[in-house]
Design brief:
It is a single chain. The chain is α/β, with parallel strands linked by helices. The protein folds into two domains: 145 residues, HUPs (Rossmann fold), CATH 3.40.50; 123 residues, Rossmann fold, CATH 3.40.50.620. Helix 4 packs parallel to helix 6. Belongs to the universal stress protein A family.
């Protein structure tokens, strides 16, 4: 049973004190009800430099204590909107949001971060930065990302169909290790391999060059574990095909891994996961996997 960590913003210095963080709540409630998860609600006080420079330190402490109290009241109200019987632990801390969240994820059992994000891609992300990108890059836990461009659901989201893109590499196949986080009951898994326009073998670290046989084998393994499975081979540019398939097949979630590079290298080399996050029609469950070691095995166990 995972521990859901849901970061929510409360910044009284901004015109919109919650930013986009509340966009995640319908999906967080659906996950909490489906997985019967423990719940942690957290707000991080990212204190502005101007406030830190106040000469009157007593005044600064009073302002921070007042801010903390407001955050706690806000999180307690949000906790009351989750399924009954799901007591929430509430954390209000001061510091760098990404560092606070990664530390908290390292301290709780089976963490699953559930975050809303602008999901900017390329140069915009390099310039503006992203707490979500930093948390994903840490590799400390899987992150259920709700892109800010998704419209609020009219009803509680249904979560029973997940798309898993696979290129035949062990890196991409590590996405299958995300599935147990969601539990097997009721999930239908659609495995997708995108055959790019330029001719090339399926990735060299997986034996063979027949993507259909490869997907059938993985589908059989997942079926034996209790999942309902389908598979599909399509041609085109990977990120575009993944987004279009998610929309056409009406999936509820995309699960994939990222190489986790940061900064300039990520922008120049490109990242399918980053492009998918920027355009996905549904939330994306993503994680930077641990490095593969020979004999360590891949895929679901």
């Amino acid at each position: 049973m995972p521990t859901l960590i849901v970061p929510l913003e409360y910044d009284r210095t901004k015109p919109q004190p919650h930013g986009v963080s509340e966009r995640v709540l319908p999906w967080a409630r659906a996950l909490a009800g489906r997985l019967e998860s423990s719940l942690v609600l957290v707000s991080v006080l990212d204190v502005p430099v101007g406030l830190r420079s106040l000469q009157e330190q007593e005044l600064l402490r009073a302002l921070l204590e007042d801010w903390r109290a407001e955050c706690r009241r806000y999180l307690e109200e949000i906790a009351g909107t989750f399924p009954s019987g799901r007591p929430a632990r509430i954390f209000v801390e001061e510091g760098d949001p990404a560092l606070v969240l990664t530390r908290l994820a390292a301290e709780v059992p089976d963490p699953l971060l559930v975050m809303a994000a602008h999901a900017r891609a390329g140069w915009r992300r390099l310039v503006l930065g992203s707490v979500t990108a930093q948390v994903i890059g840490s590799g400390v836990a899987p992150v259920f990302v709700v892109p800010a461009h998704l419209p609020p659901p009219v009803e509680e989201p249904v979560l029973d169909r997940v798309l898993v893109p696979l290129d035949g590499s062990r890196l991409a196949e590590a996405a299958l290790t995300l599935l147990p986080v969601l539990g097997t009951k009721g999930w239908e898994v659609l495995l997708l391999h995108v055959r790019e326009s330029r001719a090339r073998r399926i990735e060299a670290d997986v034996i063979g060059d027949d993507p259909e046989a490869y997907l059938r084998e993985l589908a059989d393994r997942l079926t034996a574990q209790g999942y309902r499975t389908q598979w599909l081979v399509a041609g085109g540019r990977p990120a575009q095909v993944i987004v279009e398939t998610a929309r056409a097949r009406s999936v509820d979630l995309i699960a994939m891994v990222t190489h986790g590079w940061t900064g300039l290298r990520d922008v120049l080399m490109g990242s399918t996961a980053e492009q998918v996050l920027a355009h996905a029609p549904v939330p994306v469950l993503v994680r930077r996997p641990v490095p593969f070691s020979p004999g360590g095995g891949t895929g679901p166990s």
